[in-house]
Design goal:
GO terms for molecular function: aldehyde dehydrogenase (NAD+) activity. It contains 16 helices and 18 strands. With 453 residues, the protein is α/β, with parallel strands linked by helices. The chain has two domains: 232 residues, Aldehyde Dehydrogenase, Chain A, domain 1 (3-Layer(aba) Sandwich); 181 residues, Aldehyde Dehydrogenase, Chain A, domain 2. The chain has a seven-stranded mixed beta sheet with strand order 10-13-14-9-8-15-16, sandwiched between helices. The chain has a six-stranded mixed beta sheet with strand order 5-4-3-6-7-17, sandwiched between helices. Strands 1-2-18 form a three-stranded antiparallel beta sheet. α2 runs antiparallel to α5. It is globular.
Length: 453
Amino acid sequence: MISEKINSMKRFFNDNNTKDVDFRIEQLKKLKKIILENEEYLMTALKRDLNKSFFESFETEIGFVIKELSYIIKKLKKWSKPKKVRTSVINFYGKSYVNYEPYGVSLVISPWNYPFQLTVSPIIGSIAAGNCTAVKVSEHSPNMSEALAKIINENFDENYLHVFQGEAGVAKELLEKKFDYIFFTGSTVVGQKVMEAASKNLTPVTLELGGKSPCIVDDTVNLSTTAKRIVWGKFINAGQTCIAPDYLFIHNNIKNQLIEEIIKTINDFYKEDPKKSQYYPSIITEKHFDRLVSLIENQEILYGGEHLRKDKYIQPTLLDSPDKNSKVMQEEIFGPILPIYGYEDIDEVIDFVKSRPKPLALYLFSKDRKLQDKVNKEISFGGGTFNDTLMHIGNIELPFGGVGDSGIGQYHGKYSFETFSHKKSVLKKSFWPDLKFRYPPYKSLWLLKKIFK
């Protein structure tokens, strides 16, 4: 069935059905209309999968995608036009262009933590570029997977855009097929397997992975605002966010004060019993719950630690200076657990971060511009925000993606369109003039050297 479906998509693409820009814009408008019509249905699915409040569902998933759709619909005609570039003198009377063309049939494999946003956002890029798109949604967020399959498969030509559900075996079978582009969001371990499968067909990939994103706080900050922004960024979606702060370094001058402020903020946000809060999500599966609980065993807990397996609930938890070789500091946490360290010398923090795989995100809280420049220049990371958390992902003008172990490639806004487009170079020349010195027998090396200066 999968082979037949992919072959049908290839035939549909080869008939040039998707290349017209007006067609693409109409498909994007249709997608936006369907999302708006099913807004409550989609947010209910998120509530059932992750216990997300409707506010958080709209803020981090539905609204994010609607905004991106509106932006790309507005800009797509301009982006799609061939871009004229400078032509060198050796091609006198020639004109050079970069043309954006779709790859063909793309495969999008999406995760469970933001199962709407991280599925639909790559689809938008694939549609905008003119591709047909096969989508494998996560089996770990079954309600959203079913909702996406329903609203997409019932409204789009199955040869153009189709959602596949099922266990990991479905993704494995899809990866055995020859696609023209693969876009994967998930863990680094699985990303390696995706890249290995893609390499067999020399298929280009974008890998949006994860890693341990550091958060650094110096002693120049506003304590209250800093605490609110760290708690929000860490515990939104119960910490199940690829760019959430994974561990925290606080200057010793303010460490105890900021920890107190963080605890106060957690209580302000979720009350003293977060499991009763309508604004605090649950852990996605019991398996993921068990892994997270194992990370806090035998650790010194500053705050939190309560957990209930039947509710897939883990209280926001702060750890005091865990061993840097322990599991909680070796694995991406992906949950509501925050290791906290003090520091005296920023160079020691920088050296520590650089000794680890390059992170997907980095956060620095400081009023010191020189320190901001130093951290920005000395540490490689996918993207980040200074004096806040997560917010760089919300700027549609910024590319989003990792570096090194945290990912390959970037997307959002124009970068999504470019990611799913092949940049085809075309030089258009006149039959006149036809410079004879370029042909054998060669006689004018001096002229050639002059031209190439």
